[in-house]
Amino acid sequence: MTDLRIRIGDLALANPVMPASGTFSPELAALIDFNRLGALVPKTFTRQIRQGNPEPRLAEVPGGMVASIGIPSKGLDYFLTETVPFYRRFAPPLIASISAETPAAFAELAGETAVEGVAAIELNLSCPNLEADGRAFAMVASTTEKTVAACVKAARCPIWAKLTPNVGDMTEIAKAAEQGGAQAVVVANGFLAMAIDAETFRPRVGNVMGGLTGPAPKPIILRFVYQCARAVSIPIIGCGGIATTEDTVEYMLAGAAAVQVGTATFVDPDAMTTIIDGLDAFCARKGIARVADLTGALILPGTAKAAEKEPVL
Amino acid sequence: MSVAVRTTLTNDTVGDAAQPRPRRVIGAIVGNHPLGEHYFRLDVGAPADALAARPGQFFHLRCPPRGDQPAYLRRPMSLFAADPQGGRLSFLIKLVGKGTRALAGLGEGDQLDMVGPLGNGFTLPLQPRHLLLVGRGCGLATLFPLAKAGRALGARVTALVSLSRPASLAIEPLFAAEGTETLLVNDADGSSDPARVERLLKNLPPVDAAYSCGSNRLAALLAGLCKDWRIPGQVALEEPMACGLGACLGCVHPFREEGKTVYRRVCVEGPVFDLAKVHP
Predict the structure, then answer these.
(1) How many domains are there within chain B?
(2) Per-residue pLDDT tens digits for B171-188
(3) A198 pLDDT exceeds 90?
(4) Which of B93, B118, B143 marks a domain boundary?
(5) What is the average pLDDT across A170-192?
(6) Between the CA of residue A218 and those of A130, A215, A272, B172, what are the distances in Å?
(7) A29 and chain B: CB distance < 8 Å anywhere?
(8) Considering only CA atoms, which of A249, A248, A256 is closest in space to residue A226?
(9) Known catalytic residue at A127
């Protein structure tokens, strides 16, 4: 039996596998045992009720999908009275994913979200900041730091920053999140993307553009994780196209302490529990006692380790 | 095949204890038969809880990898038939794109990965005398199991079958085998024109409840008739879907409620909705 436990800042998790926000719902409990997961991450919510983007919201593309959902939200009250009690029936820590339109609004919402039963708050920094010309919070280092710092001050629980991949140099943003006091960065969210119907000349999603998720962007997010891991000392939670145990191992070798599984759950509802079992078996096969030892264990060319024989068993 | 029986038709079956819980099932294909030019019927072995699916409920099918561009997402397919004695579940599928082409390539003994049954099924009146089904194309697959359910309750069942061309789907004999009277219309001879369909339906003897799937125009037409006839109606909606479990919020349909647009998920709040709410 491999020791699958990991730490993300103040939080101890039973294993490194958790859902990505927006791909997890109470209905999934009919199909998988939530108690087996490392953490529980429900859909991002906003203070107010939001209807989300017009339909169609989904377009399948090779190796994934383009989705323009638009953060539909039932609001803060629903989260506190329905979502928290529902997920508290399960053992893994509950991570609340929140979004707002200004740094101050983020902080205020974080403060009210940090109730008993919420173990950490993930800031969805991929939404537009109304005070920065509508650019996503995590597209700008200064607003990332300001928002994270304000939330850390307002909330009595760990803050995680979920970053957007729609940037040139993510390490600057990750450093800003760390500077602001984030206990982890989640790398990353969907790539801004498009899909067009050549027959009808129309965009395939109602909001014209959407986020690309699924296996297609995995190699790029993996590269972001590798770069961020060298730039910050807080844990990184990899999120992008993870569908298998091997994907998870790759992310951990690149420097991730944990992973979030998203779109894969839509195709394979058991994806997360299959990965947890697979990590145990993988580590046993490799003679690795603790799954945490995989984090950053990438062997780079030119190093002494690289000269050794392949450590494959 | 269990059917919800109600005196009034509402979409209030969420959380209904009688509804089987969804789960993932791997079944072996026992038959794959073409049914007209653009359709095929897939028969798959399934356990009792999957066979307890209600008319209107659906299964989320994993498309087998095939060709150089495999379909990534599952494909939602409504229950076409369930045979508890034979332990067999059937889907009637229209060839549309790479997902349905991959499903069409399944042969006897191949495995099919299904999640279901999902969504809310149709509800039937307590003692129906005459049920009307109005469907077009692949929507007829969704309505088909209502024919057996209606006949089992002793009702007369009439199905309006609308197709682009009569040869595209050979479903009339199947309805006939269930004791259903069919009205066949198609685009090729113009008989599927809504005004002509309306005249056909207005000549029917009194109807207790009506059901639609597969055509927005036909559903709108039927909604008007239901209003005139003061009878309940339901419609099964179709939207592209990712998870089928309410998580992705991708398969929404807009509803006008109190002057505002409200999006409801077809997978968990539907796919069966009150016709009067979809076409007010």
Answers:
(1) 2
(2) 999 999 999 999 999 999
(3) yes
(4) B118
(5) 97
(6) 30, 5, 17, 48
(7) no
(8) A256
(9) yes
Position B18 in a domain = no
Answer yes or no: do A60 and B72 touch at CB < 8 A. Answer: yes
**C-beta atoms surrounding B224 within 10 Å:** 13
- What DSSP element (H or E) covers A143? helix A141-154
Residue in chain B nearest A63 by alpha carbon: B72
pLDDT at B2: 46
Cβ pair A25:B73 closer than 8 A: no
Give the closest of A22, A26, A51 to B262, CB-based: A51
CA distance A58 to chain B (A): 6
- Distance to chain B for A40, nearest Cα, Å: 13
pTM: 0.94
- Kindly report the CA angle at B246 between B13 and A15, in degrees rounded to 5? 125
Looking at domain A6-53+69-189+217-296, its CATH class is alpha beta
User: Is B256 in CB contact (< 8 Å) with chain A?
Assistant: no
- The contacts of residue B277 (CB under 8 Å, 6+ apart) are B11, B255
Residues B148 and B44 in one domain: no
For range A296-301, the mean pLDDT: 96
Q: Could B24 and A270 be called an inter-chain contact, meaning their C-beta atoms sit closer than 8 Å?
A: yes
B67 and B93 both lie in a single domain: yes
- B247/A22 CB distance under 8 A: yes
Query: Is B2 within the bounds of a domain?
Result: no
Catalytic residue among A127, A157, A228, A283: A127
pLDDT attached to residue B3:
52
Whether B169 and B79 map to the same domain: the answer is: no
Q: What is the DSSP string of A99-149?
A: --SSHHHHHHHHHHH--TTEEEEEEETTSB-GGGTT-BGGGSHHHHHHHHH
Check residue B7 and give its pLDDT: 38
pLDDT digits (tens, 9 = 90+) for A203-216: 999 999 999 999 99
Over range A218-238, report the average pLDDT.
Answer: 98
Q: Which residue of chain B comes nearest to A71, CA vs CA?
A: B249
Asked if residue B6 has pLDDT above 50, the reply is no
Do B58 and B45 share a structural domain?
yes
Considering only CA atoms, give the Rg of chain A. Answer: 19
Range of the domain at B78: 23-118
| Residue B18, pLDDT score | 58
Residue A81 has pLDDT above 80, yes or no: yes
Peptide bond before residue A188 is cis, with ω within 30 degrees of 0: yes
**Residue A98 to chain B, least CA–CA distance (Å):** 16
CATH of the domain at B222: 3.40.50.80
Which of B59, B248, B253 to probe by mutation at the A interface, max A CB count within 10 Å?
A: B248
pLDDT band, very low/low/confident/very high, at B30 (cuts 50, 70, 90): very high
Q: What integer best gives the mean pLDDT of chain A?
A: 95
Instruction: Report the chain B residue with the minimal C-alpha distance to residue A62.
Output: B69
Note whether A212 contacts B: Cβ–Cβ < 8 A.
no
Domain map (residue ranges) of chain A: 6-53+69-189+217-296
B94, B118, B142: which is the final residue of a domain? B118
Find chain A residues with C-beta within 8 A of B260's C-beta. Answer: 51
CA–CA separation, B194 vs B192, rounded Å? 6
